[in-house]
Amino acid sequence: MENNLYEARPLFHYKTRKGWVNDPNGLVWFRGYYHVFYQHAPHFEKPWNESMHWGHARTKDFVHFEELPVALRPDMPYDKDGCWSGTAIVKDGVLFLFYACVCGETQAVAVARSEDGVHFEKYAENPVIPTYPPDGSPDFRDPAVLFADGRYWCVLASGNRERHTANLLLYESGDLLHWEYSGILREWENARFAECPSFVKTGGGYLLAASVCYEDGHRFSAAYGDFRDGRFAVETEAEVDKGPDGYAGQAFGAPDGRTLLLTWLPGWAYAGKFDPDVGCMSAPRELTYENGVIRARPAAELRAFIKDGDEALIRTSDGFRIRRTGREDVVYKGEVHSLAVLRDAYVLEVFVNDGETVFSALL
């Protein structure tokens, strides 16, 4: 595979016309469109040259995207160092964005609202959650908001440095604006912190997902279980997306009842080799819970693009390998009953055994 592979622009893996893009944020159906917000540096192809913004696009089919004006800018004292990751929720016909606002070493939670889904106004009393509780740490970010049991719930990603744990912290509210701390929702040992949670009602239960930063690397955790009285009981857990080029997945509800997952496919490994940055969003995956197994399949909108193989995907006697440019192959060892493959320019997504495992790779 030649370097000119990266000259082709992906069709259905969204990326901005210009600038840096990372974590998907605020994924939501609103006023006839799927809205995709994302971490964005609008003037640079690399991060850290300017404070994070929220970029914005919308689509009806996850193939054709309309890039919209930047939704959130770091223009207030409490978010002058970035409008970082978060989620969205619709209340009484109004779209609310919850995001991590950063000022110096302070990470907090702010909210903005919109009636048309394009123009946003920040709440005058921001931040609505100003600091972390004793169970957390200065790593305190990425609010995920859900309505359940007649209340609003907000999950915050954090960690406890003394106990070496990654934590998801739970808050509750009656109006989306005034929040009380409820306790630890989930905890992982031998970890530093969690990031980018999502909390979604799906089927007869709930899906709670997060990117967990363990002492030995990152993993994407997706758990299905029951949620009541502020407690989440795990029924099963899986690492649905095993990357290696996938991170910061966010799950959300579609209007037809499906639970969809979108992740960031980072181009870190190619920094300095290609301009613009090659990072992009994944294709949407439909998450289901069937007979004790969490599965991720390509969303129905992309059915026409699914194949059973690709020139970069080499079947072996004990699995398969994915060839990548200037990087080690991705190697899978295990039984392969079926493969569903999405190839889009330099992006390859492989769904193994009816979605039991997904591998996302930039070639």
Question: Can you walk through the features of this model?
Answer:
The chain is an all-beta fold and 363 residues long. The protein has strands spanning 20-30, 33-41, 53-59, 65-72, 83-91, 94-103, 106-114, 121-122, 141-148, 151-160, 165-173, 180-189, 191-202, 205-214, 217-228, 231-238, 241-244, 247-253, 259-265, 280-281, 285-290, 293-298, 313-316, 319-324, 327-333, 339-344, 347-352, 357-362. The chain has one domain (13-301): Glycosyl hydrolase domain, family 43 (Tachylectin-2, Chain A, 5 Propeller). The protein has no helices and 28 strands. The protein is globular. The relative contact order is 0.13.
Layout of helices and strands:
Blueprint: E1 20-30, E2 33-41, E3 53-59, E4 65-72, E5 83-91, E6 94-103, E7 106-114, E8 121-122, E9 141-148, E10 151-160, E11 165-173, E12 180-189, E13 191-202, E14 205-214, E15 217-228, E16 231-238, E17 241-244, E18 247-253, E19 259-265, E20 280-281, E21 285-290, E22 293-298, E23 313-316, E24 319-324, E25 327-333, E26 339-344, E27 347-352, E28 357-362
Parallel strand pairs: 17-28
Antiparallel strand pairs: 1-2, 2-3, 3-4, 5-6, 6-7, 7-8, 9-10, 10-11, 11-12, 13-14, 14-15, 15-16, 18-19, 19-20, 19-21, 21-22, 23-24, 24-25, 26-27, 27-28
Descriptive keywords:
363 residues; mainly beta; 5-stranded antiparallel beta sheet; 4-stranded antiparallel beta sheet; 28 strands; 0% helix; globular
Sheet bearing the most strands, described?
A: 5 strands, antiparallel
| Relative helix content | under 10%
Unreliable residue runs: none
Number of strands: 28
Q: Could you write a compact summary of the structure shown?
A:
With 363 residues, the protein is mainly beta. 0% of the residues lie in helices and 58% in strands. It has one domain (13-301): Tachylectin-2, Chain A (5 Propeller), CATH 2.115.10.
